[in-house]
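Long-time lurker, first post. I've been practising inverse folding by hand and with some scripts of my own, and I keep getting stuck on stretches where the structure tokens seem ambiguous. Below is the full token string for one chain I'm working on. Before anyone asks, I'm not after the true native sequence, just a reasonable design that respects the backbone. If someone could post their per-position residues I'd love to compare against what I wrote down in my notebook.
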């Protein structure tokens, strides 16, 4: 078994584990890879031809056997490769056979001429050649070959005409010729096995599957061209994926044998087209067209050229459809991208708005906390001052009541001198100072850091600290009352028994010496922290 056959057999064994569909698809893949190597196969064939032609140049023209043998070998190389070259060498074979009066060789050569004329579509010429042959004295082998050629000629012209009336007559004659060939030389075991594929399904055994016939072909140890011919014949017994299996096998071996006069790849293209495998069909039909033109098969070229535009149109439609799908996909992607972009913009705006609202809420909460703190502070200050007010008033009412009773008592007794002495004991200035000390004490209880905080706003040399026997001095009292919320100069003046101008002068002098701007000084005074004594 040669290398190529071994590879083919290996492929069969390897594919055997797969479904029929997978096997045919895999063979089509192998076929496409072999198409890329077709040129190297053709180069090898051309090398063999050149060697044979070189030998022919050095052959004695009087030596029939050697000369005819070389012509035959070159013809066989060209037979399925290139019609015009095959025609030249078959004519040489006929000339040499006639020259040396070799009748059997002459008849066989004429039948070979008829065969290549048939392959190239020269039906009339093929009929003329076969019509010249006298069949009366033919050997069984030649007679069988003659009837087979007649059968092929009639079948070929029937297919080419494709006419309901005339084609039927040609097909009938083809069947009769095949029957005559079968009578002269009955089919051998291999041919009989191949013919089983064409039996009706009702008469077939279960084991006669496509795999069975595939195995028969591979294991027969046929040459590449032989594999292609048998596989092509069996393909007519099947349809769909099963037919593709055999046609792909045939096409692969046609490429490997550099067979250009090939039916397999054309039929494969048609079958793939039926299964809507447009791209693969187009590849096969293009190759079939190139082969037909290269070989010179006019009939095949006409068939292929009539179908190629249809397949090419489908390929263009498919590519356009794919392009449209791509454009639609891109358009949808673009629209989705725009929508997502706008959603992102809206989302970002919403996030920024939420953050802005959160910041505003935070600021408002801070403001509210500040207001609540000030309200709470104001409430506590009022509580402390009201408590001080009632305590002081109560003390003074009690003192006045005592003075009243004592005075009335002394007046009733006529002790006017004692009344005068008693009243002289009441010192208003001391009472005022006592009141201020009480106010200072309450204030410093609420604002224990007032003096320190106040002096932090002044240079060291301008700082005001009360004496050791003072709680607050006059200047500190003015700003203490301001911290309590008493801002009017008249109110401060009345409380501290100062003139309005005095209060104004004190404030102006301190502001001018402050480390902070004069306009911010009073605000800084208001920011001195209130301390809730209840927390301690």
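-- Answer (accepted) --
I ran through it position by position. Result:
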């Amino acid at each position: 078994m040669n290398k190529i056959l071994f590879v083919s057999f290996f492929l069969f064994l390897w594919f055997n584990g797969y479904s029929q569909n997978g096997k045919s698809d895999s063979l089509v893949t192998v076929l496409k890879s072999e198409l890329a190597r077709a040129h190297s196969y053709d180069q090898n064939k051309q090398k063999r031809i050149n060697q044979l032609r070189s030998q022919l140049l050095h052959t004695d023209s009087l030596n029939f056997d050697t000369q005819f043998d070389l012509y035959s070998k070159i013809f066989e190389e060209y037979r399925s490769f290139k019609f015009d070259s095959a025609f030249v060498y078959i004519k040489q074979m006929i000339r040499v056979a006639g020259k040396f009066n070799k009748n059997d060789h002459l008849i066989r050569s004429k039948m070979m001429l008829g065969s290549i004329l048939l392959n190239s579509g020269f039906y009339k010429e093929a009929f003329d050649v076969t019509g010249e042959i006298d069949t009366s004295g033919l050997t069984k082998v030649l007679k069988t070959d003659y009837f087979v050629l007649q059968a092929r000629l009639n079948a070929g012209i029937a297919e080419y005409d494709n006419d309901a009336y005339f084609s039927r007559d040609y097909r009938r004659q083809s069947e009769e010729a095949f029957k005559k060939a079968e009578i002269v030389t009955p089919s051998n075991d291999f041919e009989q096995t191949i013919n089983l594929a064409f039996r009706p399904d009702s008469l077939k055994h279960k084991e006669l599957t496509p795999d069975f016939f595939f195995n028969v072909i591979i294991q027969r140890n046929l040459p590449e061209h032989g594999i292609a011919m048998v596989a092509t014949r069996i393909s007519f017994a099947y349809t769909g994926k099963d037919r593709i299996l055999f046609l792909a096998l045939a096409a692969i071996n046609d490429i490997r044998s550099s067979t250009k006069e090939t039916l397999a790849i054309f039929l494969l293209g048609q079958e793939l087209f039926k299964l809507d495998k447009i791209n693969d069909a187009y590849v096969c039909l293009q190759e079939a067209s190139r082969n037909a033109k290269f070989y010179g098969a006019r009939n095949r070229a006409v068939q292929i050229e009539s179908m190629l535009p249809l397949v090419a149109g489908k390929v263009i439609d498919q590519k356009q459809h794919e392009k449209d799908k791509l454009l639609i996909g891109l358009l949808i992607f673009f629209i989705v991208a725009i929508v997502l972009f706008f959603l992102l913009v809206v989302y970002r705006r919403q996030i920024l708005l939420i953050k802005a609202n959160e910041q505003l809420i935070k600021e408002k909460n801070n403001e509210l906390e500040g207001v609540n703190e000030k309200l709470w502070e104001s409430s506590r200050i009022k509580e402390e001052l009201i408590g001080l007010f009632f305590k002081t008033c109560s003390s003074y009412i009690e003192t006045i009541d005592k003075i009243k009773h004592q005075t009335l008592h002394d007046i009733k007794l006529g002790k006017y001198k004692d009344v005068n002495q008693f009243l002289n004991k009441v010192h208003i200035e001391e009472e005022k100072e006592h009141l201020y000390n009480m106010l200072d004490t309450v204030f410093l209880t609420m604002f224990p850091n007032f003096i320190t905080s106040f002096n932090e706003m002044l240079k060291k040399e301008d700082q005001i600290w009360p004496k050791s026997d003072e709680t607050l001095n006059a200047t500190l009292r003015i700003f203490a009352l301001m911290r309590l919320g008493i801002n009017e100069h008249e109110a401060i003046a009345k409380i501290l028994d100062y003139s309005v101008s005095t209060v104004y002068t004190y404030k102006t002098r301190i502001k001018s010496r402050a480390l902070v701007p004069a306009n911010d000084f009073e605000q800084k005074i208001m920011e001195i922290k209130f301390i809730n004594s209840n927390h301690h």
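A couple of notes from the structure itself: Confidence is low (pLDDT under 50) at residues 1-19. The two ends are 111 Å apart (CA to CA). Happy to go over any region you disagree with.
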